[in-house]
């Protein structure tokens, strides 16, 4: 665990990678940060080179923020994942080094849902096959294998923010919705909760995955699951690349058991636009391949840019951890005319009393105080009338439970 020097610095340098929306740069620049941007992802060695002096880091899905990166980035205060998933960040190591992590759990939900619906309709009507034939100069006017989505059975695996909204919109199109989730979820509309994954696979005409990025989901959907799907059914994955066995999917598409598929995420993805891409699924009939663009609409990216950048700003300036995925949650409420001490610590009895003892012995008057805990971590923000003396910072850092101390304002 680390406990950097108590410092009143309010702003510094921010690094935004992977073509994060320009609104994020604007928001942080207006708040006083010097913002650097890069269009692609950085690997571990490149991150280690770029992070000295960087207090705020913004990434999307490709950049991996490992324990080694976090151990060697003492200036880093917060990481923003400008996407839904955070499995590309070592959350435990980030918390251990006092680095807050934020994401955008809701901002691109609608965009992913609309892409899924567009692909369901296109695959069910076999529009990809018709399109290829026309480009090849073949006029194939036939209804064979083409269906309406109305009356079809949609199986949703993972009934979170995206899966549940997809459920509602698909029902409005006349589809019957069945879903499976490992945790109890409220069924919306006429959707029916199934007791097992296999039950969904044996019912659905269309199966779509919307599971999270936890490591236990690696290889979640493979040969056995594809074999259990109904002959002539359709498969979509817009969640995580590593949850699906692409070789098994390719075999079932070639055999005709799976009539069509749409894949937006892959086990290994290029670092940026223009890089080469390969997959066992290239060239297969009625298969739609997209370059991880489920949330890549201008509307979603604009909203994500503003949302996550605001979280980074508020944490750096006020110590606010609302919607942090790895630290205890405290809001932005501050006491007017005060300076804030933010103390992240191991969650054991007596820490709050120890902090207040240090402040009392130094004659520091507390104007306001908030405390929150989350698992092994505790987080307390204390508003004081004037900046704390260096001696106060030294004594707070020396508390055995201290992870990180910051002075804000």
Can you describe this structure in just a few lines?
The chain is an alpha/beta fold and 409 residues long.
What descriptive keywords fit this protein?
phosphoglycerate dehydrogenase activity, oxidoreductase, 409 residues, alpha/beta, Rossmann fold, 5-stranded parallel beta sheet, Alpha-Beta Plaits, 7-stranded parallel beta sheet, amino-acid biosynthesis, 3 domains, NAD binding
Description of the molecule:
This protein has 409 residues and is α/β, with parallel strands linked by helices. The protein has three domains: 123 residues, NAD(P)-binding Rossmann-like Domain (Rossmann fold, 3-Layer(aba) Sandwich); 182 residues, Rossmann fold (3-Layer(aba) Sandwich); 81 residues, 2-Layer Sandwich (Alpha-Beta Plaits). Helix content is 31%, strand content 20%. The protein has 13 helices and 16 strands. Strands 8-7-6-9-10-11-12 form a seven-stranded parallel beta sheet, with helices on both faces. A five-stranded parallel beta sheet has the order 2-1-3-4-5. Strand 10, helix 10 and strand 11 form a beta-alpha-beta unit. Helix 1 packs parallel to helix 11. It is elongated and about 85 Å long. The relative contact order is 0.14.
CATH architecture of the largest domain: 3-Layer(aba) Sandwich
The count of β-strands is: 16
Rough outline: elongated
Beta strand %? 15-25%
- What profile does the largest beta sheet have? 7 strands, parallel
Domain unit count: 3
Query: Terminal Cα separation, in Å?
Result: 25 Å
Strands ordered across the widest β-sheet: 8-7-6-9-10-11-12
Q: CATH fold name of the largest domain, please?
A: Rossmann fold
Radius of gyration: 25 Å
Low-confidence stretches: 1-5
CATH class of the largest domain: Alpha Beta
Helix content: 25-40%
Name the CATH superfamily classification of the largest domain: NAD(P)-binding Rossmann-like Domain
| Mean pLDDT across all amino acids | 94
């Amino acid at each position: 665990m680390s406990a950097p020097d108590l410092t009143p610095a309010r702003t510094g340098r921010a690094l935004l990678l992977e073509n994060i929306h320009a609104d994020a740069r604007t928001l942080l620049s207006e708040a006083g940060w010097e913002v650097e941007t890069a269009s692609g992802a950085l690997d571990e060695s490149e991150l280690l080179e770029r992070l000295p002096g960087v207090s705020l880091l913004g990434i999307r899905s490709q950049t991996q923020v490992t324990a080694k990166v976090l151990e060697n980035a003492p200036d880093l205060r917060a990481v923003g994942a400008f996407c839904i998933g955070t499995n590309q960040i070592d959350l435990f190591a980030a918390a251990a080094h006092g680095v807050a992590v934020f994401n955008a759990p809701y901002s691109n939900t609608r965009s992913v849902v609309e892409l899924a619906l567009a692909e369901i309709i296109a695959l069910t009507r076999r529009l990809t096959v018709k399109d290829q034939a026309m480009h090849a100069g073949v006029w194939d006017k036939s209804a064979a294998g083409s269906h309406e989505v109305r009356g079809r059975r949609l199986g949703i695996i993972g009934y979170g923010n995206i899966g549940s909204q997809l459920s509602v919109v698909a029902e409005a199109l006349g589809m019957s919705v069945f879903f499976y989730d490992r945790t109890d979820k409220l069924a919306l509309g006429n959707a029916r909760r199934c007791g097992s994954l296999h039950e969904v696979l044996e019912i659905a005409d269309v199966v779509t995955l919307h599971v999270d990025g936890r490591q236990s989901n690696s290889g979640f959907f493979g040969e056995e699951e594809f074999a259990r799907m109904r002959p002539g059914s359709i498969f979509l994955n817009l969640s995580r690349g590593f949850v699906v066995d692409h070789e098994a999917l390719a075999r079932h598409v070639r055999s005709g058991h799976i009539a069509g598929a749409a894949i937006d995420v892959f086990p290994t993805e290029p670092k940026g636009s223009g890089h080469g891409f390969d997959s066992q699924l290239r060239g297969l009939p009625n298969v739609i391949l997209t370059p991880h663009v489920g949330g890549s609409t201008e509307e979603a990216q604009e909203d994500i840019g503003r949302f996550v950048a605001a979280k980074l700003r508020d944490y750096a300036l006020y110590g606010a951890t609302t919607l942090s995925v790895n630290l205890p949650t405290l809001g932005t409420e501050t006491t007017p005319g005060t300076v804030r001490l933010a103390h992240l610590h191991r969650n054991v009895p007596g820490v709050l009393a120890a902090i207040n003892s240090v402040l009392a012995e130094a004659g520091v008057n507390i104007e306001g105080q908030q405390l929150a805990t989350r698992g092994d971590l505790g987080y307390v923000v204390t508003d004081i009338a004037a900046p704390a003396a260096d001696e106060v910072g030294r004594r707070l850092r020396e508390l055995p439970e201290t992870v990180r101390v910051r002075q804000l304002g």
